[in-house]
Design goal:
The structure holds 2 protein chains of 2 kinds. Chain A has 3 helices and 2 strands. Chain A is mostly helical. Chain A has a two-stranded antiparallel ribbon with strand order 1-2. The mean pLDDT of chain A is 91. By secondary structure, chain B is of the alpha/beta class. In chain B, 39% of the residues lie in helices and 11% in strands. Chain B contains 17 helices and 11 strands. An 11-stranded mixed β-sheet of chain B has the order 1-3-2-4-6-5-10-11-9-7-8, sandwiched between helices. The longest helix of chain B is centred in the last third of the chain and has 24 residues. Chain B starts with 7 loop residues before the first helix and ends with a helix. The C terminus of chain B is likely disordered. Classes of the chains: A mainly alpha, B alpha/beta. The interface between A and B is large, with 54 and 73 residues.
Chain lengths: 99, 514
């Protein structure tokens, strides 16, 4: 089992969009390795012939009737928004400095 | 005995008989909360005015002869992971501090439709990640049995509220044991219903394929009443099973007759207290468990040992599947549409804002699990981790199938130890995860489980729990066997198990003078 380096943890945190501080990285990286080491025991337990289970009670093609039902008003949908403008979610710029 | 010390079923009967009003019941519980919750911290939000208004409406219906349900007017507490219109829903996280959802969870809507006044929202580990309620951003809940100890988790608030008579009923959610393990820690009853038999709509998802809403109560009968109320198909939840789970109250009443003739009970060999290399099962937990099993035999049950060989891998599989699902689920907390937004200095991009907000809004355990999940799902590791874990899930389902060919229900201790001191395992994730050793297999397979008090451990005087598991959709079996054992144990103790500091005042002095 490869050990996660501090840089790899930083990369994973970037992928997960969490801006970890140096102190957090120092604290979390060793803990993550302990967790990964403990779950590594599952490797080799199940043979190739075992089918994976993603859901305990499989169901397929769950549809509702195609009828219009009441839904949230724009005011309700926006009620928890950090910033609102012209009845829309207002967000920071999405392009980087270089674009 | 005061009203708060009566069971939900007794409170409902008193309402029906006109011996008490819902306003009186609700006020009594609100008074109790005001008296004890400053210390316990079981509630994150108390809606006194709302609950009293709902209680008054309930009393008006009773007066008009039109109650909505047997439990109309009996107050209830709701875990803060279920959305409630008009009441804050924080999930124990800074990320959702002050968020007031614009819709009700289906289970909350069903409580309202049945007329149960909602006392407030209960404390929990952040986004239901934890086994001690120490991961709440709003401070830990204390165990009514010992204020220096954890009440279990993630639903420690609901369990403590019921144990301390702040509410007769509460809703919890169970992803790997978050209803059952707090039940064991606080001497209360908790049921994880069959996956899909209670709607998850409006439950802020931790792991969709594992989460299930269920009752948190002091008696098996009360749990049956509540599960029948909240259960049933919901078109708003695409994983909701169409087959209704019924006959729970009837099964609990039948079980109370203490005849288990013809019932086959399997003791799970892998959860029967051997050293597993990582943690020893606490002797007092095992002693209470053995006594419970002996009582089952005395009531006519046939008890055999069954092996579920893959259960030893359940915890490892769970701690891959759960982080994988949660890292995906919690991606919705992006600081754009609702929840915390932290804007760094300068001219930050949406991504900068997202990263700063998620760093500030999530606690350590949430970050750990999101990062583990991100790792387990990343290309190159997917097959080795998530893929393998899903295969082990299949093997565990097959273990259950084989076991239930031999027996009607399975039994094990609910948790390996009694409640531990606050702080002892807070920064030791692996030690914390071991608390869920016995409860996790049920979530992986979707089967129902109940935990009920099995006594107090002689070495520390703290409550222990016993767990029954049944096949998918056979929740009624849990209630029959659970009610039988509860009746036998209560008789052997001379009354129900109650945290000493919260016990009802002793009987009226006039009785004692005679």
């Amino acid at each position: 089992m490869p050990e996660l380096s501090r840089d790899e943890v930083r990369h994973l945190a970037d992928l997960a969009r969490i801006d970890l501080s140096d102190a957090e990285l120092d604290h979390l990286a060793p803990q993550l390795n302990v967790i990964l080491e403990s779950v590594a025991s599952i490797q080799g337990v199940a043979g190739d012939d075992v089918v994976p289970t993603s859901h305990p009670i499989p169901m397929t093609n769950v549809f509702r009737e195609d009828v219009v039902t009441p839904c949230l008003t724009p005011e309700q949908a926006l009620a928890g928004a950090p910033a609102v403008e012209e009845q829309r979610f207002s967000v920071p710029r999405i392009l980087g400095d270089e674009q | 005995m005061s009203w708060i010390h009566k069971t939900a079923a007794e409170q409902a009967a008193a309402l029906a008989a006109g011996e008490v009003t819902s306003v009186e019941l609700t006020r009594a519980h609100l008074d109790r909360i005001a008296a004890v919750d400053g210390e316990l911290n079981a509630f994150l939000y108390v809606d006194a005015d709302g609950a009293l208004a709902q209680a008054q409406a309930s009393d008006d219906r009773r007066a008009a002869g039109t109650p909505l349900h047997e439990l109309d007017g009996v107050p209830i507490a709701v875990k803060d992971v279920l959305t409630t219109t008009g009441l804050p829903t924080t999930c124990g996280s800074k990320m959702l501090e002050g968020w007031v959802p614009p819709y009700d969870a289906t289970v909350v809507a069903r409580l309202k439709a049945a007329g149960l006044p909602i006392l407030g929202k209960t404390n929990m580990d952040e986004f239901a990640m934890g086994s001690s309620t120490e991961n709440s951003a709003y401070g830990p809940t204390r165990n009514p049995w010992d204020h220096d100890r954890i009440p279990g988790g993630s639903g420690g608030g609901s369990a403590a509220a019921v144990a301390a008579f702040e509410a007769p009923l509460a809703l919890g959610t169970d992803t790997g044991g978050s209803i059952r393990q707090p039940g064991a820690m606080t001497g209360t009853v908790g049921v994880k219903p069959t996956y899909g038999s209670v709607s998850r709509y409006g439950l802020v998802a931790l792991a969709n394929s594992l989460d299930q809403v269920g009752p948190v109560t002091r008696t098996v009968l009360d749990a049956a009443l509540l599960q029948e109320l909240i259960g049933g198909h919901d078109p708003l939840d695409s994983t909701s099973v169409p087959t209704p789970v019924t006959g729970l109250v009837e099964a609990a009443r039948r079980g109370a007759g203490r005849d288990l003739t013809g019932v086959k009970v399997g003791v799970i060999k892998e959860l029967a207290g051997q050293e597993d290399g990582q943690s020893a099962w606490q002797p007092g937990v095992m002693q209470c468990f053995t006594e419970s099993v002996e009582l089952l035999t005395k009531m006519g049950a046939e008890v055999v040992e069954v092996s579920c060989p893959h259960f030893v891998h359940a915890m490892a599989a769970y701690y891959l599947i759960l982080p994988a699902e949660c890292s995906s689920n919690l991606a919705k907390f992006d600081a754009m549409r609702y929840g915390l937004r932290v804007t760094p200095a300068g001219n930050p991009s949406a991504e900068d804002v997202m990263k700063a907000s998620r760093d500030a809004g999530f606690g350590a355990e949430v970050k750990r699990r999101i990062i583990i999940g991100t790792y387990a799902l990343s290309s190159g590791y997917y097959d080795a981790y998530y893929g393998q874990a899903q295969k082990i899930r299949t093997l565990i389902v097959e273990d259950f199938d084989r076991a239930f060919e031999q027996v009607d229900v399975l039994v094990s201790p609910t948790a390996p130890s009694t409640a531990f001191p606050i702080g002892e395992k807070a920064d030791d994730p692996l030690a914390m995860y071991l608390n869920d050793l016995a409860t996790i297999p049920a979530n992986l397979a979707g089967v129902p489980g109940v935990s009920l008090p099995s006594g107090t451990a002689p070495e520390d005087g703290l409550p222990t729990g016993v767990q029954f598991l049944a096949p998918v959709l056979e929740d009624a079996r849990l209630y029959r066997v659970g009610a039988a054992l509860e009746a036998a144990l209560t008789e052997s103790w001379g009354g129900p198990l109650v945290a000493p500091a919260y016990a009802p005042p002793s009987d009226a002095p006039s009785d004692k003078e005679n």
